[in-house]
Amino acid sequence: MASILRSYNRFVLKSPLLAMSLTTGTTMGLGNIISQTVIEKRTIDTVDWGRVARFSAFGYIAAGPFLRYWYYGLEKYFTGVRFKPLKMMITDQLIAAPFINMAFLCYFPLANGKSISEATDRFYKLNFQDYWINIVFDLIAAI
C-alpha cells in the first residue's frame, strides 16, 4: 500500500493537472456508482453506465482542471496570512463551490441530450433560495 501511495505522490508532483483531472473524474464516476447502487438500490447489472460516464467526463474535463488551478491560486493568494486554512475554506465555499455546482447544473442537461434552451430553462426554474440556503449550511458545517 505504501508503494502505491508513493507512486501516486510522484505522479501528482510530475503531472499535477492530469492527476487532479483523473482523480476528480474517477471519484465522480465511483460516487455515481455508489449513489445508484446504495441510494437507488440498483444492482450492478442495472447501473446506468451512460450516467456514470457523464459524471466522470465532467470531472475529467471541467471540475478537475478548474480545481487544480483554483487550489493552486488559493495557496498562492493566501501565502503568509493568519488563519490561512480557514480563509481558504471560506473563499472556496463562497466562490468555487457555487460556481462548480452551477456549471454542473448547466452541463448535465446538455450531456443528457437536452437543447441549450431546455438546459437554461431547467437551470432558471431551480429554487435558488433553497440552493443558497444549502451553501450557507455547507459553509457552517465546514467551519
UniProtKB/TrEMBL annotation:
Keywords: Membrane, Transmembrane, Transmembrane helix. It is a multi-pass membrane protein. One of its GO terms (cellular component) is membrane. InterPro entries: Mpv17_PMP22. It is found in: Membrane. The chain crosses the membrane at residues 55-72, 93-110. It comes from the Eukaryota. Belongs to the peroxisomal membrane protein PXMP2/4 family. PANTHER family: PEROXISOMAL MEMBRANE PROTEIN 2, PXMP2 MPV17. This is Mpv17-like protein.
